[in-house]
Amino acid sequence: MSSRYGFGYDELHDDYKLVVIFNIFDDYRDDYASFKTKIKVYSLKTDSWRSVKDFQGSSLIDCSAKFVKGKLYWTKSATARAYNSEYGCTIIHFYEYDDGNRCNIISFDLAYETWGEVEQPNYGKGKFDLMLGILGGDLVVLCNYEGSHSDVWLMKDYGVKPSWTKMFAINCPDDPGKYDYYPRCSLSFSPLFCQLDKGEILLLYRSVFMIYNPKDDSIRVIRQPEITKPKSCFQAEIFIESLVNPLSTADQGLVNQED
């Protein structure tokens, strides 16, 4: 079994919710296995789990969702297949580039617990993959041309295709082997966006933290990993401090139930 997840705030019901998508493997046949999807939503306010309707299509690519304006966002592959090995099952995603069935962007509305599909920008031609991020409170898409550059698209008006704006293109480092701490990591940026005071943007390239300055199109390394031979690719998430204790929402919900 594998899983995907997302966490966010439901403003309509004043509730924090955790969404978990389980891929359950079955029907093992040699090197392959089939899988089915089950989706559970946990409400912090009621301290309870419930099942919700599955999305249509294949499997989600991103492990964790991006939360923007009441919705969770993932990328979803056109097709996927589960492979069985001595290390267990894993899902391999397949999607076309160019004009084929590229991967989609789907959303989950935390208030109404419904799925939707997001209209994407016109990326143009070429072979690339997509990653989601957040910049200044808005959803962004990194269109990664591996080993070359990444186009950054930002969405302002949600659900409206013309609202996508191409912000800038970030060139990959000239010597990617310098950051080759784990060969299986993609030669592209991961969308760890955090707009700093000077308009600079925090990124993760393979396993190295970098800062991109769109004013002069420069990139500088700010931190390299302390371990030289990691067993897997690095992942990171932005942490935002808050004076609001989410547990107070749960306590209030329990009080209301008792009343």
From TrEMBL:
It comes from the Eukaryota. Residues 3-175 form the F-box associated beta-propeller type domain. InterPro entries: F-box-assoc_dom_typ1 (IPR006527), F-box-assoc_interact_dom (IPR017451), SCF_F-box_component (IPR050796). PANTHER family: BNACNNG10540D PROTEIN, F-BOX PROTEIN CPR30-LIKE. This is F-box protein CPR1-like. It comes from Nicotiana tabacum (Common tobacco). The gene is LOC107794542.
